[in-house]
Amino acid sequence: MAEDFKRVKFDRGAFLIKEGERTDDAYLIASGKVEIRIGAFGRNPHTLAILEPGDVVGEMSLFDDEPPVASAIA
Questions:
Q1: What is the pLDDT of residues 20-30, one digit of tens each?
Q2: Residue 60 has what pLDDT?
Q3: Can you give the residue ranges of every domain in the chain?
Q4: Does domain 14-73 have CATH number 3.40.980.10?
Q5: How far from the centroid of its chain's Cα atoms is residue 54's Cα?
Q6: Per-residue pLDDT in tens (0 to 9) along the chain, 74 residues
Q7: CB 27 within 8 A of CB 56
Q8: CA atoms within 13 Å, Cβ hemisphere of 16
Q9: What gap in Å lies between CA 7 and CA 27, rounded to an integer?
Q10: Is 48 left (phi over 0), alpha (psi -120 to 50) or beta?
Q11: Which of 26, 21, 28, 15 minimizes the C-alpha distance to 61?
Q12: What is the pLDDT of residue 73?
């Protein structure tokens, strides 16, 4: 099972997950911060949370078949 995990580095401002786009990926944050934002592509984006090392993002995509309702941005 360990072979299913890989380390990925995102540049500042890069999208880990895009609102409305299906994904099968989940991320454990090892360093840095990830902003959870709704309306990221609209005129009035809203930050819901700032995640830090030890937090997980994208795990809901592993449990349901719905596209994410928020974006995750490095």
A1: 999 888 999 99
A2: 86
A3: 14-73
A4: no
A5: 13
A6: 456 778 999 999 999 999 999 988 899 999 999 999 999 888 999 999 999 999 999 988 888 888 899 999 99
A7: yes
A8: 26
A9: 9
A10: alpha
A11: 26
A12: 97
* C-alpha span between 50 and 35 (Å, rounded): 5
Q: Which tokens in the block code for residue 72?
A: 């995750």
Single pTM value for the model: 0.87
Torsion angle defined by CA atoms of residues 67, 10, 4 and 28, in that order, rounded to the nearest 10 degrees: -80
If phi over 0 gives left and psi between -120 and 50 gives alpha, with beta otherwise, what is residue 43?
alpha
Alpha helices in the chain (DSSP H): none
